[in-house]
C-alpha cells in the first residue's frame, strides 16, 4: 500500500516535496523537541492522485483512520467524544508558501453533543460555543461553498443587538443562539443540516483542502509567483490548542527579524483570547510582542528562546505561528519568512556578519527581482504633502493612484491605464486580482502579519496596514478621516516604508540604491541616514561579491553615447547590441525615404553618402562612451517600410489631393515605393541580411561608418573594440557574401586611415535554421549573439505584437505556459536550440565567443540558463544591468559549472 500519511514524528524540513512546507516544518520542530501539538500530514502525492482520479484514494481513508487512532491514543481523547472531545484543525500546506490562497478549517470534531462536553471539561461555556460557531462558519464557507458574508452578517447583527463592540463582548448565550442561526444558514444554502459526525467533517475538510489547490485565486497566485500547477498541496491534521480560552490565552504570528526592514529584533502580532485566523484576517487590531511580555512574561520568554533557536537552526528569518493556551506555549508553524527587498539584502548581510552564512549563501538569499525593486523611485520628502493618516509600514515603496474600494474596480481602472490604490478595511484571498492590479494596498485594520501585508510583501507591492484613523465604507465607496472624505477616484499616496498616507499626489525621486548604482557608494553614504546607509552597504557588498564570483560578463543594449555612458555607470562591460535602425529615426527618416525613392544607382549612392557621416558621428559617441570595452554594432535589421509613412494614410493623402485638384506627385511616388515594399508578414520578409544582399551599398555604408568612427577614436588616443553583427542569417552563404564585402571595406579604411582595425564579424542566431546549422555558420563567424526575441517568435510561430494581447492570458490560465516565453526563455524548446547552437558552434570553433542580446539577457531565470549552457555574456537594457550582474553571480554559486567545457573567451 502506498504511504500517503506521515505522523509529525516521521518527517523533516527537507521533505517539502512530499509533506509540503508546513508539514515538513511541523515535523522538523517536533524533531527538535519544541512544543508542537501532535498530528499527521496527508502528502502532496495523495492530493495529486485525488486531482487526477476525481476521488479520494481508498487506501488514504484507511491510513487516515490509523493515524487518527494513533493520535487519539497519544492524547487520551477521541475525535468528537461527547464528554471530552479531541478537536483537530485541517490546514493546507503546499511546497511553496501561498499565504491565504488555500483553505483551513479549525475545531473539527465539534457537534451538538461534544460542544457541551467541551464546555464542561474546559470550564468555559463561552469558549465552547465560540469554537463551535467558528467551525460552522469556516466549514460552511470552505467546505460547503456558502457565501461567508452570510455568517459575517449574522455575527454583526448579533453584536448590534447586544451593543457589543467586538466578538469577545458576546456572551456564551449570545454565541449559542448564533450557532443556531449559522446552522439555519447551512440548511437553507445546502438543503441539508450541518454534519454532526466528526469523521465526516474530517473527510470533507481534507477533500476541500485538496479542491482549494485549483481555485481561481490559488491558480492566479501561482501564475504570479511562477509556481507550477502540478505540485498539489499536503494537508495537515493537527490537535487543536486554543487561544480563545480567556485572557491567559491567545494567538500570534512573529518574525525573528523585521520582514519589512530587516532590522534585528523580535516582531509580531498577538491577539489575546483569539484563534489563529483572527490574526491573519486582520479583523481585530493586534497587540505587540512587548504587550505579550507584559501580560505573560513566562510565555514571552519561552517564545523568544524558541525564536532564537529556530533562526539559528534555519539560519534565516523565520515566520512563526504560535498559540498560548492558559499559559502553555504551542508552536503551530514555522517557515522561512517572506520579506521585502530591502529586508532581504539587510538580513543576508547581517547573517554573514553573525557568521551564520557565507557570502556565497548571502548571494543566494537575494534575487535580481528584489534588486530591481530597490531601484524604483521613492517619495520626495522635501515636497509639500498633506498627511491623511498613519498606519503600519507593511511593504515598502512609494505608490500613488486613484482610491478604489474593491478588487473589480482596481482591475478595471488598471486595465484602462490608471494607477490605483486598493483601499479596504482588511483584504482577504478574494482580493488577489485587485492587489495585483493596484500600485499599492491600504487597509484600516490588521498588522504586519495580516493577509494584506504578507501577500503584498510577497508580490513587491507597496502596502500600509492598520491605519485605524481611516473609516472605510466599502458600500459608500469612501474613506473618511474626521471631516476629510476620500471618494473613489480621488488621488492618494502611500509610503510603505513609513506607513504614511497622503491626500493627493506626491512627487517621487530616485531611490538611494539607484543613486548608488549610478553615482557610486560614497556619493550616497555622505547623505544617508543609518538605515539607508546599512541598506546601500548591504547591496554594495553582495553585488560586489556577485561581480567577483560570476563567469558571465554583462553588457548593455545601447544605441547612443548617452545610453552607453549610463550603462557603463551601472556596471555594463560593453555594448552587446547597438540597434543601428534607431539612428534613422526623427529627422533622418527623410534620408531613408530618399534611399527608397532613388530611381538610379547614383541617386541611391547619394542618399547613402548623406547618411554615412550621421552614422559615423553616432558611432564615435558610442565608442567614446565605451572606450576599451566591446561594442557590437548590428547592421540594419527591420524591413525598410518601417521607416516610411503609413500606407493607408498615404493613400488617403493622394486621394484628397486629387479631389482638391492639387498635385499629388510626391505622395504618389512615396505611395508607389511603400506599395512596392509592402509585405503580408514583414517580420519574415525583406529584412536583416536579406536587405544587405538586395539593397546595394546599404550594409557597406554602415560598415564604413563604423570603421571610420573606430579609426577616428584610435587617432584620438582611444581604444575602440568594435564588433560587426549581421542579423537574421539563416544560411552560411548569406554570411559569407556579407563578410566578403565587410572585410574588404575594413581593409580599405584601415589602409586609408593608416590604423590597425581588428574588427570581428559575427552573426545573430535568431532563426531555428541558424541554430540547427550553427556548426556551418561558425565557419564564417567570429562570434554568435543569440537574438532570443526573434528566436522565440520563429520557434513558436508567434508574432509577439499580436499574440500577447490575443491569447497569452488564456494560455497562462490554462497552464500552456506559466510565464510568457518572451519574458523568461522557454528552456525546453527555444533553450534547446540555443544549447545545440552553442555545442555545434564550439565544435567548429572551440573559442567562439557567444552571448545573448535579447531582453532575456536581463531576466533572472534566463540568466541562470545562459550561464549553464556556457555563453560568455548577456546583454540587456541599461536599467537591468545590475540585475543581470547579481543573477550571473547567483548562477555561478548555485551550479557546479557544468558548462565550463563549453565556455569560450570572456
Automatic annotation (TrEMBL):
The keyword Magnesium applies. Residues 17-53, 56-285, 298-346 form the Pyruvate phosphate dikinase AMP/ATP-binding domain. The keyword Hydrolase does not apply. Pfam families: PEP-utilizers (PF00391), PEP-utilizers_C (PF02896), PPDK_N (PF01326). Residues 544-889 form the PEP-utilising enzyme C-terminal domain. Its cofactor is Mg(2+). Its EC number is 2.7.9.1. InterPro entries: ATP_grasp_subdomain_1 (IPR013815), PEP-util_enz_mobile_dom (IPR008279), PEP_util_AS (IPR018274), PEP_util_C (IPR000121), Phosphohistidine_dom_sf (IPR036637), PPDK_AMP/ATP-bd (IPR002192), Pyruvate_phosphate_dikinase (IPR010121), Pyrv/PenolPyrv_kinase-like_dom (IPR015813). Keywords: ATP-binding, Kinase, Magnesium, Metal-binding, Nucleotide-binding, Pyruvate, Transferase. GO terms for molecular function: pyruvate, phosphate dikinase activity. Gene3D superfamilies: 1.20.80.30, ATP-grasp fold, A domain, ATP-grasp fold, B domain, Phosphoenolpyruvate-binding domains, Phosphohistidine domain, Pyruvate Phosphate Dikinase, domain 2. It catalyses: pyruvate + phosphate + ATP = phosphoenolpyruvate + AMP + diphosphate + H(+). Residues 418-499 form the PEP-utilising enzyme mobile domain. Belongs to the PEP-utilizing enzyme family. This is Pyruvate, phosphate dikinase. It comes from Pseudonocardia lutea.
Amino acid at each position: 500500500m502506498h504511504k500517503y500519511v506521515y505522523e509529525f514524528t516521521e518527517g523533516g524540513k527537507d521533505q517539502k516535496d512530499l509533506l509540503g512546507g508546513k508539514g515538513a516544518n511541523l515535523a522538523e520542530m517536533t524533531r527538535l523537541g519544541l512544543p508542537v501539538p501532535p498530528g499527521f500530514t496527508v502528502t502532496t502525492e495523495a492530493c495529486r492522485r485525488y486531482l487526477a482520479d476525481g476521488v479520494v484514494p481508498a487506501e488514504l481513508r484507511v491510513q487516515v483512520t490509523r493515524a487518527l487512532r494513533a493520535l487519539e491514543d497519544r492524547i487520551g481523547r477521541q475525535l468528537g467524544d461527547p464528554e471530552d472531545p479531541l478537536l483537530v484543525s485541517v490546514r493546507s500546506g503546499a511546497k511553496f508558501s501561498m499565504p491565504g490562497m488555500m483553505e483551513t478549517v479549525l475545531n473539527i470534531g465539534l457537534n451538538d453533543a461534544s460542544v457541551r462536553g467541551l464546555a464542561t471539561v474546559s470550564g468555559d461555556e463561552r469558549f465552547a460555543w465560540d469554537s463551535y460557531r467558528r467551525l460552522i462558519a469556516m466549514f460552511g464557507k470552505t467546505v460547503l461553498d456558502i457565501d461567508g458574508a452570510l455568517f459575517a452578517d449574522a455575527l454583526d447583527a448579533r453584536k448590534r443587538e447586544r451593543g457589543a463592540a467586538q466578538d469577545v463582548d458576546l456572551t456564551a448565550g449570545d454565541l449559542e443562539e448564533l450557532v443556531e442561526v449559522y446552522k439555519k444558514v447551512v440548511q437553507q444554502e445546502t438543503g441539508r443540516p450541518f454534519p454532526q459526525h466528526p469523521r465526516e467533517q474530517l473527510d470533507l475538510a481534507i477533500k476541500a483542502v485538496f479542491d482549494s489547490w485549483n481555485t481561481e485565486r490559488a491558480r492566479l497566485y501561482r501564475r504570479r509567483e511562477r509556481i507550477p500547477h502540478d505540485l498539489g498541496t499536503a494537508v495537515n491534521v493537527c490537535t487543536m490548542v486554543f487561544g480563545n480560552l480567556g485572557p491567559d490565552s491567545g494567538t500570534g504570528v512573529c518574525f525573528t527579524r523585521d520582514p519589512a526592514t530587516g532590522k534585528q529584533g523580535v516582531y509580531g502580532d498577538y491577539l489575546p483570547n483569539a484563534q489563529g485566523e483572527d490574526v491573519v484576517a486582520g479583523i481585530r487590531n493586534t497587540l505587540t510582542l512587548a504587550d505579550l511580555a507584559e501580560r505573560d512574561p513566562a510565555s514571552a520568554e519561552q517564545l523568544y528562546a524558541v525564536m532564537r533557536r529556530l533562526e539559528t537552526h534555519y539560519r534565516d528569518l523565520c515566520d512563526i505561528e504560535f498559540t498560548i493556551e492558559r499559559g502553555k506555549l504551542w508552536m503551530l508553524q514555522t517557515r522561512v519568512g517572506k520579506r521585502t527587498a530591502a529586508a532581504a539584502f539587510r538580513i543576508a548581510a547581517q547573517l554573514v556578519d553573525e557568521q551564520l552564512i557565507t557570502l556565497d549563501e548571502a548571494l543566494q538569499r537575494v534575487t535580481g527581482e528584489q534588486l530591481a525593486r530597490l531601484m524604483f523611485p521613492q517619495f520626495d520628502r522635501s515636497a509639500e504633502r498633506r498627511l491623511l493618516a498613519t498606519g503600519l509600514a507593511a511593504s515598502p515603496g512609494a505608490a500613488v493612484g486613484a482610491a478604489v474600494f474593491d478588487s473589480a474596480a482596481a482591475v478595471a481602472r488598471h486595465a484602462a491605464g490608471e494607477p490605483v490604490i486598493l483601499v479596504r478595511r482588511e483584504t482577504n484571498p478574494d482580493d488577489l486580482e485587485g492587489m495585483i492590479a493596484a500600485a499599492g494596498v491600504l487597509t484600516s485594520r490588521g498588522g504586519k502579519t495580516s493577509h494584506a501585508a504578507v501577500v503584498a510583501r510577497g508580490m513587491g507591492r507597496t502596502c500600509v496596514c492598520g491605519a485605524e484613523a481611516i473609516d472605510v465604507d466599502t458600500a459608500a465607496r469612501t474613506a473618511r478621516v474626521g471631516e476629510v472624505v476620500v471618494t473613489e477616484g480621488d488621488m492618494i499616496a502611500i509610503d510603505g516604508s513609513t506607513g504614511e498616507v497622503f491626500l493627493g499626489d506626491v512627487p517621487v525621486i530616485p531611490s538611494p540604491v539607484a543613486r548608488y548604482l549610478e553615482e557610486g557608494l560614497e556619493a550616497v553614504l555622505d547623505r544617508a541616514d543609518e538605515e539607508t546607509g546599512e541598506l546601500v552597504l548591504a547591496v554594495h557588498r553582495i553585488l560586489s561579491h556577485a561581480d567577483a564570483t560570476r563567469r558571465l560578463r554583462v553588457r548593455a543594449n545601447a544605441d547612443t553615447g548617452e545610453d552607453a555612458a549610463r550603462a557603463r555607470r551601472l556596471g555594463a562591460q560593453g555594448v552587446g547590441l547597438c540597434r543601428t535602425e534607431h539612428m534613422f529615426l526623427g529627422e533622418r527618416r527623410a534620408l531613408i525615404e530618399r534611399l527608397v525613392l532613388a530611381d538610379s544607382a547614383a541617386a541611391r549612392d547619394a542618399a547613402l553618402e548623406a547618411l554615412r557621416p550621421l552614422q559615423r558621428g553616432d558611432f564615435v559617441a558610442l565608442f567614446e562612451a565605451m572606450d576599451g570595452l566591446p561594442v557590437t554594432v548590428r547592421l540594419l535589421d527591420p524591413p525598410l517600410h518601417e521607416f516610411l509613412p503609413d500606407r493607408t494614410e498615404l493613400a488617403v493623402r493622394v486621394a484628397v489631393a486629387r479631389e482638391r485638384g492639387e498635385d499629388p506627385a510626391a505622395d504618389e511616388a512615396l505611395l508607389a515605393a511603400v506599395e512596392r515594399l509592402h509585405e503580408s508578414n514583414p517580420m519574415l520578409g525583406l529584412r536583416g541580411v536579406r536587405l544587405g544582399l538586395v539593397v546595394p551599398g546599404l550594409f557597406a555604408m554602415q560598415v564604413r561608418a563604423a570603421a571610420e568612427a573606430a579609426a577616428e577614436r584610435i587617432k584620438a588616443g582611444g581604444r575602440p573594440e568594435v564588433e560587426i553583427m549581421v542579423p537574421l542569417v539563416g544560411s552560411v552563404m548569406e554570411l559569407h557574401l556579407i563578410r566578403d564585402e565587410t572585410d574588404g571595406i575594413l581593409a580599405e579604411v584601415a589602409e586609408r586611415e593608416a590604423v590597425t582595425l581588428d574588427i570581428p564579424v559575427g552573426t545573430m542566431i535568431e532563426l531555428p535554421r541558424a541554430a540547427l546549422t550553427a556548426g556551418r555558420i561558425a565557419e564564417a563567424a567570429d562570434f554568435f549573439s543569440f537574438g532570443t526575441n526573434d528566436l522565440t517568435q520563429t520557434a513558436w510561430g508567434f508574432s509577439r505584437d499580436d499574440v500577447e494581447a490575443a491569447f497569452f492570458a488564456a494560455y497562462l490560465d490554462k497552464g500552456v505556459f506559466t510565464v510568457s516565453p518572451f519574458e523568461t526563455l522557454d528552456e525546453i524548446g527555444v533553450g534547446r536550440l540555443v544549447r545545440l547552437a552553442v555545442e555545434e558552434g564550439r565544435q567548429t570553433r572551440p573559442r567562439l565567443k557567444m552571448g545573448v542580446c535579447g531582453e532575456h539577457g536581463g531576466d533572472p531565470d534566463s540568466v541562470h540558463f545562459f550561464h549553464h549552457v556556457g555563453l560568455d555574456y548577456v546583454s540587456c537594457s541599461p536599467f537591468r544591468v545590475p540585475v543581470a550582474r547579481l543573477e550571473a553571480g547567483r548562477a555561478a554559486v548555485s551550479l557546479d559549472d557544468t558548462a565550463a567545457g563549453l565556455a569560450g573567451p570572456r
